[in-house]
Amino acid sequence: LLSWTQNDFDLLAGYNLYRATSAAGTYTKVNTTIIPPQTPSYQDTTVNPGQTYYYKFMVVKTDMTESQPSNVASATPLDTAARSAT
């Protein structure tokens, strides 16, 4: 679960979250609709365990334009699937 804090935008409509596989890579938006302003978090379920991903978010203003990107954060999901020994 990714979460962030943003409290200095008066014309806040929501957020867009972007992901890449390298810090300097090409970022692709992961949410299909604007993330509501009262929900500053997102669970990214389309990732592969062990792969490091890089994220940044942009504020979506009420005129539907985006702010400059946030700082980049990284995360590496773990494989939590149950394993069986044979």
List keywords for this structure.
6 strands; four-stranded antiparallel beta sheet; 86 residues
Short description:
With 86 residues, this protein is mainly β. It has strands at 2-3, 12-20, 28-29, 41-42, 53-61, 73-75. It contains no helices and 6 strands.
List the helices and strands and how they pair.
Layout lengths: L1 E2 L8 E9 L7 E2 L11 E2 L10 E9 L11 E3 L11
Antiparallel strand pairs: 1-4, 2-3, 2-5, 5-6
Structural class: mainly beta
The SSE string, one letter per element, is: EEEEEE
Rg is 15 Å
User: Describe the biggest sheet?
Assistant: 4 strands, antiparallel
Task: Assess the beta-strand content as a share of residues.
Answer: 25-35%
Strand elements, count: 6
Cα-to-Cα separation, first versus last residue: 33 Å
Shape: elongated
> Total helix count?
0
| Strand line-up across the major sheet | 3-2-5-6
Mean pLDDT over all positions: 87
Helix content: under 10%
- pLDDT below 50 for ≥5 consecutive residues: which ranges? none
Summarize the structure in words.
This protein has no helices and six strands. By secondary structure, the protein is mainly β. The protein has a four-stranded antiparallel beta sheet with strand order 3-2-5-6, with no helix packed on it. It has a two-stranded antiparallel sheet with strand order 1-4. The chain starts with a strand and ends in an 11-residue tail after the last strand.
